[in-house]
Amino acid sequence: MQNWFVREIVETGRLRMFCFLIAFIAAFLFIRFSVRMIRRQARWWPGNVTPGGRHIHHVVFGMVLMCVGGVGGLVVDEATSGWAAGTAALFGVGTALVLDEFALVLHLSDVYWSEEGRLSVQVVMIAVALSGLLLLGLRPLGVNDTVNEEGVPGAPWQVGLGLLVNLAMSLIALLKGKTWTGLIGLFIGPLALIGAVRLARPRSPWAHRRYSEGSRKRRRAEVRDTRLRAPVERFVDRLQDFVAGRPD
Protein backbone atom coordinates (compact mmCIF):
# COMPACT_ATOMS: atom_id res chain seq x y z
CA MET A 1 0.00 0.00 0.00
CA GLN A 2 2.80 2.39 0.86
CA ASN A 3 4.58 1.70 -2.44
CA TRP A 4 1.32 2.28 -4.32
CA PHE A 5 0.71 5.55 -2.48
CA VAL A 6 4.20 6.83 -3.25
CA ARG A 7 4.04 5.72 -6.88
CA GLU A 8 0.49 6.83 -7.74
CA ILE A 9 -0.04 9.84 -5.46
CA VAL A 10 3.25 11.37 -4.36
CA GLU A 11 5.37 10.85 -7.49
CA THR A 12 2.55 11.99 -9.78
CA GLY A 13 2.20 15.29 -7.94
CA ARG A 14 -1.25 14.52 -6.50
CA LEU A 15 -0.36 14.56 -2.80
CA ARG A 16 -1.93 17.94 -2.11
CA MET A 17 -5.12 17.07 -4.01
CA PHE A 18 -5.34 13.76 -2.12
CA CYS A 19 -4.95 15.49 1.27
CA PHE A 20 -7.43 18.19 0.27
CA LEU A 21 -10.09 15.68 -0.76
CA ILE A 22 -9.71 13.40 2.27
CA ALA A 23 -9.80 16.38 4.65
CA PHE A 24 -12.76 17.87 2.78
CA ILE A 25 -14.86 14.70 3.08
CA ALA A 26 -13.89 14.11 6.71
CA ALA A 27 -14.66 17.71 7.72
CA PHE A 28 -18.04 17.66 5.95
CA LEU A 29 -19.08 14.41 7.63
CA PHE A 30 -17.92 15.71 11.01
CA ILE A 31 -19.71 19.05 10.76
CA ARG A 32 -22.92 17.39 9.60
CA PHE A 33 -22.71 14.99 12.53
CA SER A 34 -22.13 17.97 14.82
CA VAL A 35 -25.09 20.01 13.60
CA ARG A 36 -27.36 16.96 13.77
CA MET A 37 -26.36 16.41 17.40
CA ILE A 38 -27.04 20.09 18.10
CA ARG A 39 -30.40 19.80 16.35
CA ARG A 40 -31.29 16.83 18.58
CA GLN A 41 -30.12 18.87 21.58
CA ALA A 42 -27.82 16.04 22.68
CA ARG A 43 -26.59 16.92 26.15
CA TRP A 44 -23.22 15.25 25.70
CA TRP A 45 -22.36 17.32 22.59
CA PRO A 46 -20.73 20.78 23.09
CA GLY A 47 -23.29 22.70 21.01
CA ASN A 48 -23.07 25.97 19.09
CA VAL A 49 -20.31 28.51 19.52
CA THR A 50 -22.10 31.55 20.98
CA PRO A 51 -19.67 34.05 22.54
CA GLY A 52 -21.64 36.88 24.11
CA GLY A 53 -24.87 35.33 22.86
CA ARG A 54 -23.90 35.70 19.17
CA HIS A 55 -24.14 32.48 17.14
CA ILE A 56 -20.96 32.05 15.11
CA HIS A 57 -21.72 29.95 12.03
CA HIS A 58 -19.05 27.47 10.97
CA VAL A 59 -18.71 29.23 7.62
CA VAL A 60 -16.71 31.86 9.54
CA PHE A 61 -14.22 29.27 10.78
CA GLY A 62 -14.12 27.85 7.27
CA MET A 63 -13.12 31.17 5.74
CA VAL A 64 -10.33 31.57 8.27
CA LEU A 65 -9.01 28.06 7.60
CA MET A 66 -9.20 28.60 3.84
CA CYS A 67 -7.15 31.78 4.16
CA VAL A 68 -4.54 30.12 6.39
CA GLY A 69 -4.33 26.97 4.29
CA GLY A 70 -4.38 28.82 0.95
CA VAL A 71 -1.75 31.40 1.84
CA GLY A 72 0.31 28.76 3.63
CA GLY A 73 0.23 26.58 0.53
CA LEU A 74 1.48 29.45 -1.61
CA VAL A 75 4.68 29.80 0.41
CA VAL A 76 5.48 26.06 0.40
CA ASP A 77 7.83 25.24 -2.46
CA GLU A 78 8.17 21.47 -2.13
CA ALA A 79 4.92 19.82 -3.32
CA THR A 80 5.67 16.51 -1.60
CA SER A 81 6.58 17.86 1.82
CA GLY A 82 4.57 17.47 5.01
CA TRP A 83 3.92 21.21 5.02
CA ALA A 84 2.38 21.00 1.56
CA ALA A 85 0.15 18.13 2.65
CA GLY A 86 -0.83 19.95 5.85
CA THR A 87 -1.78 23.22 4.17
CA ALA A 88 -3.79 21.34 1.53
CA ALA A 89 -5.66 19.46 4.25
CA LEU A 90 -6.29 22.69 6.13
CA PHE A 91 -7.66 24.25 2.94
CA GLY A 92 -9.90 21.19 2.47
CA VAL A 93 -11.34 21.50 5.97
CA GLY A 94 -12.05 25.19 5.45
CA THR A 95 -13.65 24.58 2.07
CA ALA A 96 -15.95 21.93 3.54
CA LEU A 97 -17.10 24.28 6.30
CA VAL A 98 -17.79 27.07 3.80
CA LEU A 99 -19.63 24.94 1.25
CA ASP A 100 -21.70 23.27 3.96
CA GLU A 101 -23.30 26.67 4.51
CA PHE A 102 -23.29 27.71 0.85
CA ALA A 103 -27.08 28.17 0.84
CA LEU A 104 -26.88 30.38 3.92
CA VAL A 105 -24.30 32.63 2.24
CA LEU A 106 -26.28 32.69 -1.01
CA HIS A 107 -29.59 33.65 0.62
CA LEU A 108 -28.01 35.74 3.43
CA SER A 109 -30.45 33.94 5.72
CA ASP A 110 -30.27 30.91 8.00
CA VAL A 111 -31.86 28.38 5.64
CA TYR A 112 -29.67 25.52 6.85
CA TRP A 113 -32.54 23.15 7.75
CA SER A 114 -34.98 24.36 5.10
CA GLU A 115 -35.55 23.02 1.59
CA GLU A 116 -33.27 25.76 0.28
CA GLY A 117 -30.54 24.32 2.48
CA ARG A 118 -30.38 21.22 0.29
CA LEU A 119 -28.37 23.34 -2.13
CA SER A 120 -25.39 23.22 0.23
CA VAL A 121 -25.33 19.41 0.17
CA GLN A 122 -25.64 19.39 -3.62
CA VAL A 123 -22.71 21.80 -3.94
CA VAL A 124 -20.62 19.62 -1.62
CA MET A 125 -21.42 16.52 -3.68
CA ILE A 126 -20.40 18.32 -6.87
CA ALA A 127 -17.16 19.51 -5.24
CA VAL A 128 -16.32 15.95 -4.16
CA ALA A 129 -17.01 14.59 -7.65
CA LEU A 130 -14.90 17.24 -9.43
CA SER A 131 -12.06 16.91 -6.92
CA GLY A 132 -12.14 13.15 -7.41
CA LEU A 133 -11.77 13.59 -11.17
CA LEU A 134 -8.80 15.89 -10.60
CA LEU A 135 -7.26 13.33 -8.27
CA LEU A 136 -7.61 10.70 -11.00
CA GLY A 137 -5.51 12.92 -13.25
CA LEU A 138 -8.26 14.38 -15.43
CA ARG A 139 -8.12 18.08 -16.21
CA PRO A 140 -10.97 20.36 -17.33
CA LEU A 141 -11.06 20.98 -21.08
CA GLY A 142 -7.94 18.84 -21.50
CA VAL A 143 -5.63 21.60 -20.27
CA ASN A 144 -3.02 18.99 -19.38
CA ASP A 145 -2.43 18.35 -23.08
CA THR A 146 0.97 19.64 -24.15
CA VAL A 147 1.60 21.18 -27.52
CA ASN A 148 4.73 19.71 -29.03
CA GLU A 149 5.78 17.80 -32.11
CA GLU A 150 5.51 14.39 -30.45
CA GLY A 151 2.43 14.39 -28.26
CA VAL A 152 -0.12 16.75 -29.76
CA PRO A 153 -3.17 15.15 -31.43
CA GLY A 154 -3.16 17.78 -34.18
CA ALA A 155 -2.04 21.34 -34.83
CA PRO A 156 -2.34 23.94 -32.04
CA TRP A 157 -5.37 25.56 -33.67
CA GLN A 158 -7.08 22.18 -33.78
CA VAL A 159 -6.42 21.62 -30.09
CA GLY A 160 -7.72 25.09 -29.27
CA LEU A 161 -10.82 24.57 -31.40
CA GLY A 162 -11.50 21.28 -29.64
CA LEU A 163 -11.25 22.96 -26.24
CA LEU A 164 -13.66 25.72 -27.30
CA VAL A 165 -16.17 23.18 -28.60
CA ASN A 166 -15.95 21.22 -25.36
CA LEU A 167 -16.51 24.39 -23.34
CA ALA A 168 -19.46 25.41 -25.51
CA MET A 169 -21.11 21.99 -25.16
CA SER A 170 -20.67 22.08 -21.38
CA LEU A 171 -22.19 25.57 -21.17
CA ILE A 172 -25.18 24.47 -23.27
CA ALA A 173 -25.69 21.46 -21.01
CA LEU A 174 -25.64 23.75 -17.96
CA LEU A 175 -28.13 26.12 -19.58
CA LYS A 176 -30.37 23.14 -20.22
CA GLY A 177 -30.45 22.46 -16.48
CA LYS A 178 -28.10 19.46 -16.62
CA THR A 179 -25.72 20.49 -13.85
CA TRP A 180 -23.88 17.21 -13.37
CA THR A 181 -23.60 16.53 -17.10
CA GLY A 182 -22.29 20.02 -17.82
CA LEU A 183 -19.69 20.08 -15.05
CA ILE A 184 -18.36 16.56 -15.52
CA GLY A 185 -18.50 17.18 -19.26
CA LEU A 186 -15.71 19.71 -18.76
CA PHE A 187 -13.52 16.71 -17.98
CA ILE A 188 -15.16 14.13 -20.27
CA GLY A 189 -16.02 15.74 -23.61
CA PRO A 190 -18.49 13.15 -24.96
CA LEU A 191 -20.64 13.56 -21.86
CA ALA A 192 -20.92 17.30 -22.51
CA LEU A 193 -21.98 16.57 -26.09
CA ILE A 194 -24.74 14.23 -24.87
CA GLY A 195 -26.03 16.86 -22.47
CA ALA A 196 -25.97 19.53 -25.17
CA VAL A 197 -28.00 17.62 -27.75
CA ARG A 198 -30.65 16.17 -25.44
CA LEU A 199 -33.85 17.96 -24.41
CA ALA A 200 -33.54 20.66 -21.78
CA ARG A 201 -35.22 20.43 -18.42
CA PRO A 202 -38.56 22.30 -18.51
CA ARG A 203 -37.56 24.85 -15.84
CA SER A 204 -34.10 25.54 -17.27
CA PRO A 205 -33.05 28.88 -18.85
CA TRP A 206 -32.74 27.12 -22.23
CA ALA A 207 -36.32 25.82 -22.10
CA HIS A 208 -37.61 29.18 -20.88
CA ARG A 209 -36.14 30.96 -23.91
CA ARG A 210 -36.51 28.32 -26.64
CA TYR A 211 -39.46 26.07 -25.71
CA SER A 212 -42.68 28.07 -25.95
CA GLU A 213 -45.67 27.16 -23.78
CA GLY A 214 -47.67 24.31 -25.27
CA SER A 215 -45.00 23.44 -27.83
CA ARG A 216 -44.14 19.84 -28.63
CA LYS A 217 -40.64 20.18 -27.18
CA ARG A 218 -42.00 21.69 -23.97
CA ARG A 219 -44.43 18.80 -23.53
CA ARG A 220 -41.74 16.22 -24.27
CA ALA A 221 -39.40 17.88 -21.79
CA GLU A 222 -42.06 17.90 -19.06
CA VAL A 223 -42.98 14.25 -19.66
CA ARG A 224 -39.35 13.18 -19.64
CA ASP A 225 -38.65 15.22 -16.51
CA THR A 226 -41.56 13.61 -14.69
CA ARG A 227 -40.88 10.09 -15.88
CA LEU A 228 -37.09 9.96 -15.62
CA ARG A 229 -35.81 12.87 -13.57
CA ALA A 230 -38.31 12.79 -10.69
CA PRO A 231 -37.39 9.26 -9.46
CA VAL A 232 -33.68 10.16 -9.59
CA GLU A 233 -34.30 13.34 -7.59
CA ARG A 234 -36.27 11.42 -4.96
CA PHE A 235 -33.41 8.93 -4.60
CA VAL A 236 -30.84 11.75 -4.36
CA ASP A 237 -32.96 13.55 -1.76
CA ARG A 238 -33.16 10.39 0.36
CA LEU A 239 -29.40 9.93 0.07
CA GLN A 240 -28.79 13.53 1.07
CA ASP A 241 -31.17 13.23 4.03
CA PHE A 242 -29.36 10.10 5.19
CA VAL A 243 -25.97 11.82 5.09
CA ALA A 244 -26.86 15.38 6.04
CA GLY A 245 -30.20 15.22 7.84
CA ARG A 246 -33.75 15.87 6.70
CA PRO A 247 -34.86 19.50 6.24
CA ASP A 248 -37.68 20.86 8.40
Automatic annotation (TrEMBL):
Keywords: Membrane, Transmembrane, Transmembrane helix
Transmembrane segments: 15-35, 56-76, 82-107, 119-137, 157-175, 182-200
Protein name: Integral membrane protein
